[in-house]
Amino acid sequence: MRAVLMAGGSGTRLRPLTCALPKPMVPILNRPIAEHIVHLLRRHQITEIIATLHYLPDVMRDYFQDGSDFGVQMTYAVEEDQPLGTAGCVKNIAELLDSTFLVISGDSITDFDLSSAIAFHKEKGSKATLVLARVPNPIEFGVVITDENYKIKRFLEKPSTSEIFSDTVNTGTYILEPEVLKYLPENQECDFSKDLFPLLLEKDEPMYGYVADGYWCDVGHLDAYREAQYDGLNRAVKLEFAYEEHSPGVWVGQNTFIDPSVKISPPALIGSNCRIGPRVQIEPGTSIGDNVTIGADADLKRPIIWNGAIIGEEAHLRACVIARGTRVDRRAQVLEGAVVGSLSTVGEEAKISPSVRVWPSKEIESGATLNINLIWGSTAHRNLFGQRGVSGLANIDITPEFAVKLGAAFGSTLKPGTQVTASRDQRSISRMVSRSLISGLMSVGINVQNLEATSLPIARTVIPKMGVAGGVHVRLHPERQDSILVEFLDHNGINISKAREKKIEGAYFKEDLRRAQINEIGNVNYPSQVIDTYLTAFEKHLNVEALRNSHSKVVIDYAYAVSGAVLPQLLAKFGIDAVVLNASLNQIPTTAGDREGLLEQLGRVVDALKATFGVQVAANGEQLVVLDETGAPIRGEMLTALMVNLILTAHPRGTVVVPVHASSAVEAIARRHDGRVIRAKANPGALMEACHQTPNAVLGGSGDMGFIFPQLHPGFDAMFCTAKLIEMLMLQERSLGAMRTDLPRIYHKTYTVRCPWTSKGALMRYLVETHPPDNLELVDGVKIYDPHSDNWVLVLPDAGEPLVHIFANSSDRDWTDHALWEYRTRVQDFIEEEKTVDEK
User: Fold this and answer.
1) Between these two residues, 107 and 160, which has the higher pLDDT value?
2) Can you give the residue ranges of the Nucleotidyl transferase domain (predicted)?
């Protein structure tokens, strides 16, 4: 027997899922609806299938092809010009139907016993048998009434409430004899229920209804789609799963990694080639497609996630549908009944309200709340550049193809033939991205001096000495271990200006990319003696005699993250004993917890060896934590104060540049040495620029960001800082432990509040309007200060997250605690008021 699979529907009520997908190809349990129908037909020995297609026909043809992979023989009939209706499309292939045949809808999920229905048809001598089902609410279906012999007596298509005369409905599955097709006109739209069956009834042709037992769901709208999915997982319908049952009620595909800490409550389905991160909660009813990545601590309550989706850390998904290739970023929420179309992006901390639909290829901005369907248009491109360069998830945001285009955009803002450097950290992912950037630069005629695996301080040092126009450096993000950071440097080795960033963004988004001729393609050179160049500059700005006479012993911990070759080589030249720990490189970055464990280990080694001090180097040679001779760590504000004190002791009346949120201990120390303090914006680029432009600047930075020695190069440098510490301790003849006891006693505390992006500007305006102008400083954020003391509060919006940081600073502990509590309360109350207004 042959079957006609009606698969031409566009599925308007299923949009946005069917915007680029015919309704029968929408997946249930990671298989198209039509595939479940094919499996049902094969189970009942119906292996010759003719599929009638109209909407996006190639999708189904490409998937099933000749049907051999599915154990059937598939042929296709495409309605090219206009849809012919359920009956018209069958009439169109009448020459292929020379015996009893079955017609079945390609957009329903069922496990009906088709063999019994066919036997019933033959037993009754029926010309047309309709497979019927009993449903609680027949309003959306065609109602059928039969006599005691199951002969059909009456039809009513989609009745109103008052017209309902039966709960037995037409399921769209028919067993027909070929002669009934003679009642249908040629090449004309017509329908079985509206045209053919009433005519057969009028002609008194034998027509019967077979009331089938089993499951049937017409996947006609989004609620029905979700219900069919959940019913399939709960085995309310007999379906064939694509994967093996890993444990009772949990099906898992091949090559899928699930972290041991993941909690899965059955029933749940997880596809092949997935990556499920630590502590993910997978609730009953969850379905995850193939090639899906789920970030750590995500909370999944019955979502349906299609192939290729990326779900960020701490995302919350609630009985929603996430279509193919969609990305849901960190801490975003997609709530009950919401549907996000394919290739869309839901930004960090964004919220999609219940039952909201998002059409394909849309972008929901970070922190936004979407309460209405997003159909037309698209949100604006996100900025490429963030707080410091271009950053994004490794091999998800920052991919080889992205990096090629980014390199071409950077190169297109430079003159053809210009030279730039390319450098990176030692990890494989950084090598991949760096090579892609180099390819993009070459394609627009830029020559590249490839420094290869080089710490960022070295790259900044050699750029002005090589006379190049700038450089690009690729490394793991110092604050996010799953992300890549690409930094662009100018001819001085400083991160490029905002104006330059805008030019690169313009070239990238407008695709205004220059294409070089074959003879103009850029070259790649590998300069030698890069480390020697840095060593020469390094040595030039140190008191070498003091280093040689210091007899210091330093313990250096690289935390498996920075090449251990350079700093010991530099220190050895000055006769300094450097004990190196954890210098091998891990491709998998160390977590914050790992680094704390290594720091404790470092403290024990420093104490055991009676070393002068210890350092833990991080961020590709930019940042460090210092440990005194007892192994006690010095970091953050204390490290800032210590370095300022050391340097101003050696350079009285010097100028130091610190971020706006640094402790007022810096000013107290500067007053001791007749020095000057400049406060810059709390981002690395602003600090570098301020150090470069400030005459007599002897130090910049902070314990959190790292330290800048402007006389050496304009960037942060943990290696030079280590050598400088040895020099200062020798010249000042004091230990770090003794020096820390002399630091001013300042109480500096911070608290972070979650704040939607949309509320940040209003919050800053509110603070400015509610304080006297004479008590305000607006370098970065809003600082409220007392002109007669060092008491101040700073409310600083985070540049990259939906957060606000509150800093309180005073020599009086009680004042600090009270101010922090007061402003935390004020900020939280304001955010709640804004949220209430938005909801109204």
Assistant:
1) 107
2) 3-231
